[in-house]
Amino acid sequence: RAKMSGRATFSFYTAEMQAQMARTLRVENALRRALERDEMQLHYQPQCQAADGRIVGVEALLRWQHPELGWIGPAEFVPLAETNGQIAVIGRWVLDTALRQLRAWQLAGLPPLRMAVNLSAVQLRQPGLAELVGELLRRHEVDPAWLELELTETMAWDDPEGSARQIARLRAMGLRIALDDFGAGYTSFSHLSLFQAGTLKIDRSLVAGIERGSHQASVVAAIVNLARTLRMHTVAEGVETPGQREALLAAGCESAQGWLYGRPMPAEAFEALIRERQAPPPG
Ligand code: C2E
Ligand code: MG
Ligand code: MG
Ligand code: MG
């Protein structure tokens, strides 16, 4: 049967691959003008104390809306931007925009927040990264302690020592490093000490299955203990249900991020949310 359908299967895949390639070309072309055409935005997702939901931080997440192609997610276009080098310009825009927003919130009297910004592996390899970050912090008059840069450990595979040096330079400026997506794919424990990150973000794939004495629950508890030993703070990603929150609290995880606490949203909506949730009691 497999043999008989071989030909049809082949042409099916060819058509699909062609459509995929056409889409990639189209997206890549559109990406070149996305910033100058003002098609990109940052959305902001709260990072909360797991126990009481108090907002202690915020992650900036890149959004792109193209007039014809509609919303395109970062999981699709960030890898393209990494391949063609545009991530340098986009990444700079992300940092600039997130720090400008953070400063505006500080001046508007919002409760203190740490701003988390995702960094691409390609940015981490840029020689002038620390200088760029320093320049933007000064320009927006933001204390480095309020900035956290999120890295994924796959970034270090090519050049662990080079990555560690770059990260040390950033840490020396007084900002925080978070290790994103921990527990997804191939986790190398040696990277934990190499990076000396202050925050460990537990991947959504582990959080998804954590309810009620599951295997994942013990894995997460072990990760939280390990993080505590290394004096790292833990944030669970993709928390969607009260059951997951309970299991995370039982595992000792301090902070949580996910739809249960708030979706990524435009700046104005985030500001309204924090004012509503964290308003001082009346009278
Ligand atoms: P990430 O940094 O791990 O971000 C978390 C992703 O999970 C986000 O997807 C977020 O919208 C989603 N998420 C949050 N809470 C929940 C939940 O409760 N349930 C589910 N199902 N999903 C949730 P998003 O925004 O599509 O971003 C995907 C990835 O793209 C990010 O993963 C990050 O690696 C990358 N990315 C996003 N913004 C940037 C950026 O400015 N620069 C770089 N280099 N990468 C970025
Ligand atoms: Mg992240
Ligand atoms: Mg993540
Ligand atoms: Mg991710």
TrEMBL record:
Measured against the full-length protein, the chain present covers 460 to 742 of 742
User: Start and end of every EAL domain?
Assistant: 24-278
Species of origin reads Rubrivivax benzoatilyticus
Q: Which residues form a coiled coil?
A: none
This protein's name: EAL domain-containing protein
> Superkingdom of this entry's organism?
Bacteria
